[in-house]
Amino acid sequence: MYDSKIIRALAVHAPGAPLSAFEYASTSLSADEIEVKVEYCALCHSDLHLMNGEWACTYPFVPGHELIGHITQTGSSVR
What we know:
Layout: E1 6-12, E2 19-25, E3 34-42, H1 45-51, E4 66-74
Antiparallel strand pairs: 1-2, 3-4
């Protein structure tokens, strides 16, 4: 059974704002999802556009999608 966990990250809370601490309780892991413990994360130019409010985005926004980490849990349908 999957237990809810607290996710900690750095987020932009408004367009152009600096990165600051952000945390939330995760939801249950779906059958087709994986959980990854992120060790390193990079930002790309797309992240900068979103952080600066130049593209449509909802806030808080946790930038970064180029990462290195370890799979810590898999959903029941993941092979």
